[in-house]
Design a protein that fits this description.
The complex is a heterodimer.
Chain A lengths: L1 H20 L5 E4 L2 E5 L3 H4 L8 H29 L2 H4 L3 H14 L15 H25 L5 H6 L3 H29 L1 H9 L16
Antiparallel strand pairs in A: 1-2
Helix pairs in contact in A: 1-3, 3-6, 5-6, 6-8
Chain B lengths: L1 H18 L2 E2 L2 E2 H17 L36 E4 L5 E5 L1 H5 L3 E9 L5 E10 H6 L11 E5 L6 E5 H4 L5 E6 L2 E2 L9 E3 L14 E5 L19
Parallel strand pairs in B: 3-12
Antiparallel strand pairs in B: 1-2, 3-4, 5-6, 6-9, 7-8, 7-12, 9-10, 9-11
The chains are: A mainly alpha, B alpha+beta.
Chain lengths: 213, 229
């Protein structure tokens, strides 16, 4: 379920940016001076984001169902097995997040106490990314059927606001992915192998068991 | 090992999807998902579930985004609409005054473009359901779609009957109390918050009641036939 997310998210982002190409409305700027535009032509054209709206929609709206099914399967699995306890941070863990982040950035020498299987920052960002998936799904449905699901549209502050949240979620997914990969690489081969296989081999013979990552 | 097999299966699946026979410019399986989505959402649709309406103070004249089928000049005084039955037989013609004689309705709704932008705008005109009532007795019971075309035949859409008979589907001739501009579809256009703008044809020249889905300009160019909201 973890690995299914990767190709699914890549497809959702790729098709999503083909949709975004058709109406590129957001940029950071001051008055008339735009200093940052998402996806300028030099990104859009080589990656094939331009002039593919119909194909982008077809892929996006088909693979969205797989993304939803995978999310539901993951949620059901963690709820059933009780694995959610490893991921959802406690209030105490939340307070340790700044210290953990500073430590990882090399700004704080002392390593924070582990909150359990994952550290506080991991718990918070993993829970956050799952919630982000839920927000992306809910705003996606709001944009897909805004008349039939007008309640959802209202919840997200209107149609354009839902579109902005949906787009922001896609950018946050990319940022998460970058940090996630850097952190896994830093933690060494052991973690990477566990992440790839879905199982972690513990060194202690008596405790040998497999744990789904 | 399992992961490797799954990855290979994923790549193979992706390649076969990309190479699948296209159905109007998109891979057939994706067209099938569009049609499944249509089946789900058209079943959930209810006539009494109305799109949100807004105060007219929030509305502005709709942005002009495409001129397909309305590039030629038009003589509004001689314009008339032709009505056809399912076998192509002509059932009648109407001048704009006939449409204006039907009960007047107004809506201020959010127009949505399939490209992603949206705008609150205002439409005034007759409900298509009232227009349909003029012909209902002369039509068979199995009409499922309405096919509408510009006078030059360049632009055409096909819309399901459930949407056409919805109370917020108008044959619009005015907006903000004035005639619709040429570029926004004078003298008569389709307006409905239940479909993207691509279905809301401007400058209607003919209307055909059909037993099946007719041609659709953007549907043939890779978009969802249904394009419902």
């Amino acid at each position: 379920m973890h690995w299914v997310n990767f190709p699914l998210l890549v497809i959702m982002l790729w098709s999503g940016f083909r949709i975004y190409w058709a109406e590129q409305e957001w940029a950071f700027g001051i008055l008339e001076w735009e200093w940052f535009q998402f996806f300028p032509d030099w990104i859009n054209e080589p990656l094939g984001f331009d002039r593919k709206l119909a194909r982008g929609l077809a892929f996006h709206l088909s693979f969205a169902w797989l993304f939803v099914l995978n999310g539901l399967a993951y949620t059901a699995y963690t709820a059933w097995t009780g694995e959610w306890r490893k991921v959802v941070p406690s209030m105490r863990a939340l307070k340790r997040v700044p210290a953990t982040v500073l430590h990882d950035l090399g700004l704080r020498r002392e390593a924070p106490a582990k909150a359990g299987y994952y550290n506080a920052a991991q718990q918070t960002s993993y829970t956050g990314i799952i919630m982000l998936g839920a927000v992306a799904t809910a705003t996606g449905f709001a944009l897909f059927k805004p008349t039939q699901l007008s309640v959802l549209v209202t919840m997200f502050g209107g149609y354009s606001s839902a579109r902005l949240i949906h787009f922001t979620a896609s950018i946050v997914f990319i940022l998460f992915f970058v940090v996630h990969i850097v952190q896994v690489a830093r933690s060494g081969r052991h973690t990477f192998m566990a992440m790839v296989s879905g199982y972690e081999l513990l060194t202690d013979e008596r405790d040998r068991e497999s744990t789904v990552v | 090992m399992t992961g490797g097999v799954a990855a290979l299966a994923g790549v193979a699946g992706w390649r076969s999807l990309q190479g699948a026979d296209p159905d109007f410019r998109i891979p057939g399986p994706l067209r099938a998902v569009h049609e499944t989505n249509e089946a789900i959402w058209s079943t959930l649709m209810r006539d009494d579930h109305l799109a949100t309406e807004y105060p007219i103070s929030e509305a502005s004249v709709l942005r002009v985004n495409g001129l397909h089928g309305i590039r030629d000049d038009i003589d509004l005084d001689t314009w008339e609409i032709t009505v056809l039955g399912p076998d192509g037989e002509q059932l009648g013609t109407h001048a704009l005054d006939d449409i204006k004689a039907l009960p007047w309705h107004e809506m201020t709704i959010e127009h949505k473009c399939i490209e992603g932008w949206s705008q609150v705008t205002n439409w005034q005109g007759a409900r298509f359901s009232d227009f349909f009532a003029l012909y209902q007795d002369r039509l068979p019971d199995d009409i499922t779609h309405v096919f509408l075309q510009t006078p030059d035949g360049e632009y055409y859409v096909s819309v399901d009957m459930a949407t056409m008979r919805h109370p917020q589907t108008l044959l619009a001739y005015d907006n903000f109390g004035e005639a619709i501009s040429d570029r926004n579809g004078a003298p008569l256009r389709l307006a409905t918050p239940l479909k993207y703008g691509i279905k809301q044809i401007k400058r209607i020249g003919s209307i055909q009641f059909r037993r099946d889905q007719g041609a659709d300009y953007w549907g043939e160019r890779g978009y969802d036939w249904y394009a419902g909201l």
